[in-house]
Specification:
It contains no helices and eleven strands. With 111 residues, it is mainly β. The termini are far apart.
Length: 111
């Protein structure tokens, strides 16, 4: 099983990023997928989750209205569109599914 995230980087406050996570080694379409994040000195927190095959989503209160989780089961990929980014969104973002984790991608929001 592999989960490989990409799309992180440095962005100014108010900017946008789209994270991607490509999954392999399991039947992607059969499992809910999630994005978590961990900021320095803080515990890992759930950001967003999308059901299998993709009709239901849930978000942390801190990102509601700004972030959108989606999935493309044909590409075994889950996305996290992040808009109106704030400094407090700075963290390592992890993809999770089938009880596995990706390696994480750094998102830094700074001017």
């Amino acid at each position: 099983v592999q989960l490989v995230e990409s799309g992180g980087g440095l962005v100014q406050p108010g900017g946008s990023l789209r994270l991607s996570c490509v999954a392999s080694g399991f039947t992607f379409s059969s499992y809910a997928m999630s994005w978590y994040r961990q900021a320095p000195g803080k515990e890992r927190e759930l950001v967003a989750v999308i059901s299998s095959p993709g009709g239901i989503t849930n978000y942390a209160d801190s990102v509601k209205g700004r972030f959108t989780i989606s999935r493309d089961n044909g590409k075994n990929t889950v996305y996290l569109q992040m808009n109106s980014l704030k400094a407090e969104d700075t963290a390592v973002y992890y993809c999770s599914g089938y009880a596995y984790w990706g390696q994480g991608t750094q998102v830094t929001v700074s001017s």
